Structure formats: C-alpha cells, structure tokens
Amino acid sequence: MKDFSGVYAALLTAFDEKGAVNFDAVGKLVERNIASGLDGMYVAGSSGEAILMSEEERIAILEFVAKKTAGRVKLIAHIGSASTDSAVRMAKCAEKFGYDAISAVAPYYYAFSKEAVKGYYSDIINSTSLPMIIYNFPGANGFGGMLELVDELIDNPKLMGVKHTSVNLFDLERFKHLKKPLVVFNGYDEMLIAGLSMGADGGIGSTYNFLGKEIVAIYKAFKAGDLKTAQEIQTKVNRIIETMIPYGVFAMEKAVLTELGIPMGDCRKPFLPLSEEGKAAAKKIAADLK
Ligand code: MN9
C-alpha cells in the first residue's frame, strides 16, 4: 500500500458571485497547494463546505481536482454523508476518478446508534477497492464512540486510517496502537506538533491552503527531531489562527487567499459573509505573508 504519511490541505471550495463553484479558482488553489510542497489534498470535506453542497456538485469537484492534479500528489476523497446510499455513490465516483483513498465523517443529524454507524462504514468500505480513512470529528456530529468502533472494524483490510479532528490526543495515540497499525492524521492545525508527538503520521488542515510552506516546514523539522524549530513555526501559525477564529476560520481563509490572488468568494449560507473587521484582519495576514 502507498505511504500515506505527510501533510494534506483540506481543500477549500471557491464560489463565484452567484454562489456557484468557481472551478477556475479551485484549479489555482490546487496549483498553490502542490507548489507549497504538501503531500496531497483532502477533497470535499468540512473545509470544502461539502455539507452545504449537492451530491452532484461534490462529484464535480472530485472529478475536477483529480483531473487537475493528474497524479502529482496524493488525493483523498471525502464522501461522508448523512445518507449511506449517497456516500456509496460518491465513493464509487472517487474510485473511478483515480483517488488514492476515501474518507467519511460519521453520518450526522440523527443520533445514529453505534451499530448503525458501523453498518454505514461497512457498506461504504465494501463498495470500492479503495482504502478508507475514517473521519473522526465528534465536535461536528456528536458521535463519540469512534475508538471503540474502529477497533471493531479493524480486521477489514481496507480500513487504513483515521483523520482525528478532536483535542483528545489520548484517543489519537490509542488509534495508533490497535491490533493493526493505522495511518493517523492530526485534524486541528493549531495542535499539529502535539498530534505528531502523540504518534500522528501527518496532518490534514484547512489553513494549509495558505500556510502550506509553514506546515511543510513544521512537519520536516519535527521529523528531523528539531522540536525547537517546529515549535517556533507552530507559534507563528497559531498567532494567525488565533486572529482568524473570532471572524470564522473558513471565511477568513478565503479572504486571505483572495488577497493573495485567488478569488475564493464567500462561504455558503447559512455562513454569514465576512465582516468588514474580518476583511481588514485578512488583509493584514496576507500582507504579512507576502
Ligand atoms: O480540516 C479543519 N477542521 C475543521 C481541518 O475545520 C473542523 C482545521 O483545519 C481547522 O479549520 C483549523 C482551525 O481550527 O484547525
């Protein structure tokens, strides 16, 4: 199996003034991420606002990014949905488009039982030949039983890894020490070196879209055993993330990228447009990066 370790941008989706996907801008962002030295992209996940997009739009993004990337970096397709059937349809498309792996958040909205969530993952995993990276994001859907569930699914040879978006780094470490070695990704960018210290094989993050070079430098320094350098860059990154949080992280990331020359547009409703203060803060972040 491919070596999946490394750092992946959780690709943002650009929208035009009418709110439609702006493929031209998405293409530019793909090129920026590849040029930053990132190992790959995680496509149509939370950061890509996939939850606010139709199945057709998600499939169109998956296809576009695969064609644009053409094998230059690794690609993970997020195909998670509230509906198993929809997730399976998107997983089959990801396989057809040549993705390296699929990933799915637990089904949301209804408080599904652990057995139901287990059925969802089994159905998706059995629908393609691709490896699966389970997206553990308890903050989004309230599903907190993922460690136990992954342990129950561990014998499935296609279960390959976990994207762990949680501040519970004890669980992150435990995912690394189940019956078989899983590939574990750190999900909160502001805690990247903490996740790596607890055994994560890499990270997947939204800020990587504009801080790709810094993230690659953190990862390389950490791997080389230079914790001091890794901490210094993490602190630089975290000063920026701290500024973004009050205004909305995705809207701020889009505004920074727009300042850097890629017109990302607004986030989809019900996200609100970025405030004037937020725009000024984004301008400053972009100016400091230039
Ligand atoms: O994909 C992102 N996760 C979520 C990863 O947004 C839930 C992160 O990159 C965060 O946006 C980032 C800021 O909190 O760490």
From TrEMBL:
<dbReference type="GO" id="GO:0008747">
    <property type="term" value="F:N-acetylneuraminate lyase activity"/>
</dbReference>
<dbReference type="GO" id="GO:0019262">
    <property type="term" value="P:N-acetylneuraminate catabolic process"/>
</dbReference>
<comment type="similarity">
    <text>Belongs to the DapA family.</text>
</comment>
<dbReference type="Pfam" id="PF00701">
    <property type="entry name" value="DHDPS"/>
</dbReference>
<feature type="active site" description="Proton donor/acceptor">
    <location>
        <position position="135"/>
    </location>
</feature>
<dbReference type="InterPro" id="IPR013785">
    <property type="entry name" value="Aldolase_TIM"/>
</dbReference>
<protein>
    <submittedName>
        <fullName>N-acetylneuraminate lyase</fullName>
        <ecNumber>4.1.3.3</ecNumber>
    </submittedName>
</protein>
<feature type="active site" description="Schiff-base intermediate with substrate">
    <location>
        <position position="163"/>
    </location>
</feature>
<dbReference type="GO" id="GO:0005829">
    <property type="term" value="C:cytosol"/>
</dbReference>
<keyword id="KW-0456">Lyase</keyword>
<feature type="binding site">
    <location>
        <position position="204"/>
    </location>
    <ligand>
        <name>pyruvate</name>
    </ligand>
</feature>
<dbReference type="InterPro" id="IPR002220">
    <property type="entry name" value="DapA-like"/>
</dbReference>
